[in-house]
Amino acid sequence: MYRTDLHAAAAAPGVPAPHAANVREIFPGASKGVPVANPPRVRRPGPQAGMATAEYAIATLAAVGFAGLLVVILKSDEVRGFLLNIIRTALSF
Q1: What's the pLDDT tens digit per position in 22-51?
Q2: Angle in degrees, 0-180, between the axes of helices 77-91 and 51-74, rounded to the nearest 10
Q3: Where are the domains of the chain?
Q4: Element (H, E) at 61
């Protein structure tokens, strides 16, 4: 069993480590190159900036309205009697 010290190999580019023969690179020569920094991304607000927040707000209001409607419907005596009848029938078996 041998140890691969990638930090030591990266610290001295071009100088092979003593155990370099035991290491196989996935991308040959990648450790010898100078790392390239990614360019900074510039985020420009487009014509739909903030649309996701507005869509979430509308969906939340719709869900609250639907929940309120369900509460009103389920509090009525007809629906309550219907649900109790279903529960009694299910428990009587």
Answers
A1: 767 777 666 676 666 777 777 777 776 666
A2: 80
A3: 53-91
A4: helix 51-74
Pairwise CA distance, residues 57 & 67, whole Å = 15
CA pair distance 33, 11, nearest whole angstrom: 12
Kindly report the CA angle at 53 between 50 and 55, in degrees rounded to 5? 110
- What count of residues does the chain have? 93
| List of residues 6+ apart from 19 with CB closer than 8 A | 2, 3, 4, 5
Quick one: tokens of 76? Answer: 């009525």
**More confidently predicted of 23 and 65:** 65
Give the C-alpha separation, 9 to 14, whole Å: 9
- Identity at 74, one-letter amino acid code: L
Q: Is 18 exposed, middle or buried (0-12, 13-18, 19+ CB in 10 A)?
A: exposed
